[in-house]
Amino acid sequence: MATTLLASTACSAQTATGAKPFKETVIADFDSPWAMTVLPDKRMLVTEKKGQMLLVSADGKQRQTVATITVDSAGQGGLMDVVLAPDFAASQRVYFSYSAAGEGGKGVVLARGRLRPNGGGGERLGEIETLFSARPFVEGNGHYSGRIAFSPDGKYLFFTNGERQKFTPAQDPKVTLGKVVRLTIDGKPAPGNPLAAKGFVPEIWSYGHRNLLGIAFDAQGNLWEQEMGPKGGDEVNLIKPGLNYGWPNASNGSNYDGTDIPDHKPGDGYEPPKVFWNPVISPGGLMIYSGAMFPQWKGDAFIGGLSSKSLVRVDLNGTNAAKGDQWDMGARIREVEQGPDGAIWLLEDGGESQGRLIKLTVK
After folding, report:
1. What's the pLDDT at 3?
2. pTM for this model (two decimals)
3. Secondary structure (3-state) at 349
């Protein structure tokens, strides 16, 4: 995969219903990127699947490798999410996730480090420490999840653990697979988690999830999550403490072998999605927009579409959600982020596409 930087070029693109309502500018090209976050000085941290974390200038023309993490990158594995600590300006701490091999198989890991000058005019991510690992490690290369979100007060960290394509762990109270976990910023079980008194492992916040590839808070403090369904049934969920979201006992999709899964229905004991898709969009990355560049979309959710090769907008209205726009981007979109000026940033997956970083601005 090419890793050379591209000159910034504007792309003109059309959808079936006409021109897209934004300008696309290619900023850089990466080797299978997975996630990004923007620093206060407008530089960016970008993760690549094989384990490189890159510090990239705002214009995309300079980059340096600040860390190389030992990851198991087979299948859906790799270096995954990257998020700044709430107190980054003071602490310079960066939180990230990755898949690793260990006793029993493989699993997703949460870690953090500090971004410091390296003495040679650049910077490096040092003081790296592991905070949490999914339990148990199991065989297989899929459904790690590994998305990170801090609570609005900065006191807690929410971390997604996929069910590793094993189905039933999502309902097992003694494992973290198929769960949203809530931790302290040091990676310990957060006090007051809702299910510990019922015999669940103490980190669990919600359960019955499949492959959770996006999690974010809105301006009202609601926690939203999106996850891949099986054959159909991709979901956007409003995450509430202690609730069971149904997988694998309820889904608006079917198993890949063609067998049916009961749909979500009132009274089944499972929290239904606020929005679901048939056919699938294959959601990757979730951002809730709060900028001024696109005021008509303030408060809405944006999702990257992998197999659908799209950018998907979801209307959020309090605790309700509805489908909005779906723009054809011509490439698998792995990540969606918001820049400090309100621009929307996309990372192509780098599988069937180039792995480009694209900036969306007003026309």
Report:
1. 35
2. 0.94
3. coil
